[in-house]
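Hello,

Our lab assistant flagged a job as stuck in the queue for most of the afternoon. It eventually completed. Since we weren't sure the result was trustworthy after the delay, we are filing this so someone can double-check. Below is the sequence as submitted and the structure that was eventually returned. Let us know if re-running is recommended.
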Amino acid sequence: LVYDILRGNELFKNAYLDGDVKKINALILGGGKHGIELLKALYWYCQMVGYEISVTVVDKKVGVKDKFFGNCPEIEKVNGIKIDGDAYVNINFCEDLDVKSLSFRKLLSKSKPFTAVYSMLGDDDLNLNASLTVLEECGRRFDGDKSKFPIINAVVESAQKNKTIQSCGGLKNYSGELYGINLIGELVPYHHGWYDYSCEAFDEILDL
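-- returned structure --
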């Protein structure tokens, strides 16, 4: 799953230029199996000349940071440290943070703009709703300028949910616009749109 995400993702294209360096600012929602595997993959995958990467991991549990660096002490030694000739990677953990909370919305509004978001919370509905929250806050922050929105990826493992979404042609706002959420899971990744609570199709999918 993780490597399928990276193969089909425009992670580098969405990086922004800061001086002579292109920066990737990724947000991983969920510090479980998928989230941690993605974090490891991003650490190695993004070590490219001319790029710097920051990754923020959000999880409701406490202890994710300690467990990760306990398993990867070599990453902890160089985390956030600029070393000549080596790639720069900065990993931050926001533990005890619920994606349904106001504190999560404040994180989205006050952090440096994220260029990629991965919703991997272990529950399809939670992943969809967290993606919606990200889109809502981006809409407020950037006054609806979608060119500044991050790439948003949500894990949806239910075959039935994927099939329903595909049959709807993706979820759209009332203007029929797609906003570009990538749903990833057991099936072929499918490009989707804005998740609107008032959308009949969205309510149908959450009930599956």
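-- support follow-up --
The delay was a queue issue, not a problem with the job. The result is valid. The radius of gyration is 17 Å. The first strand starts at residue 16 and ends at 18.
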